[in-house]
Design goal:
Elements lengths: L6 H9 L3 H10 L11 H15 L7 H10 L3 H13 L8 H8 L6 H18 L4 H11 L2 H9 L10 H11 L5 H15 L3 H10 L4 H12 L2
Helix pairs in contact: 1-3, 4-5, 5-7, 6-7, 7-9, 8-9, 9-11, 11-12, 11-13, 12-13
Length: 225
């Protein structure tokens, strides 16, 4: 199979490192992660250069490549790995959900979770709706803030395909949470769905006692349209 060599990518990233921007990025993320200081457009441009020179990994190499990115010290390499998974998600196969789930728990924060939950886990669970209940129950039961946020957000892009029964059940289980990231996610998923079904969201907010934050976020789009 041969190894997929990430060294040229790392060299490219290092060459464009910006220590001043890196410290700003680190501060913005509450000092939790180290950065090279690449903004998203530049990072994606460099990734594009790397792909055009070296191509993409094979689907069976994906997990190994992602694992390798995830042990590197800089956050931008993790972003690269996640964006690679999104590019290759159609080829990833049924077992990819185990990788996505694993990644939700490695150095989790909103920057990675909010990509994995809707665009990777959510994509998978759209293909395999019979598995949704299993993962949702499991994630909620962990009590882990980021897995619970993922249970709320996996349907973020489902629009008309949203399972409103399941969404209701998830929100009702988590709406009492004091966690900012849970309250915000509840509002976000409802706001997104309000673009598809305004009536459902308005009724939902009227019928259920949500936190002020969830409620404000949920109705934000409707108030401006």
């Amino acid at each position: 199979m041969g190894n997929y060599d990430l060294k040229p990518l790392v060299n490219l990233f290092n060459k464009h490192a910006d220590p001043e921007r890196a410290s700003q990025m680190k501060a913005y993320m509450k000092g939790q992660f180290n950065y090279l200081g690449l903004n998203s457009p530049l990072r994606r441009e460099l990734a594009k250069q790397f792909y055009s020179a070296y191509g993409y990994p094979l689907p069976e190499q994906l997990e190994e490549v992602v694992d390798e990115c995830y042990v590197m010290p800089f956050r931008e390499i993790k972003y690269f790995a996640l964006e690679l998974l999104v590019k290759m998600r159609k080829k990833a196969g049924h077992d990819a959900i185990h990788l996505y789930e694993k990644l939700l728990s490695i150095d989790p924060w909103w920057d990675t979770v909010d990509l994995i939950a809707p665009s990777l886990a959510g994509y998978h669970l759209r293909q395999y709706p019979e598995e949704r209940e299993h993962y949702v129950k499991k994630w909620i039961a962990t009590g882990n803030l980021w897995l619970q946020r993922s249970a709320i957000l996996f349907q973020l892009k489902y629009k008309k395909e949203t399972d409103t029964g399941m969404l209701t059940e998830i929100i009702l289980q988590l709406k009492g949470s004091k966690e900012f990231f849970i309250r915000k996610a509840i509002g976000w998923v409802l706001r997104e769905y309000s673009k598809t079904n305004a009536g459902f969201v308005v009724r939902f907010v009227q019928q259920h006692e949500l936190s002020g934050l969830s409620q404000r976020e949920a109705l934000k789009w409707l108030e401006h349209h």
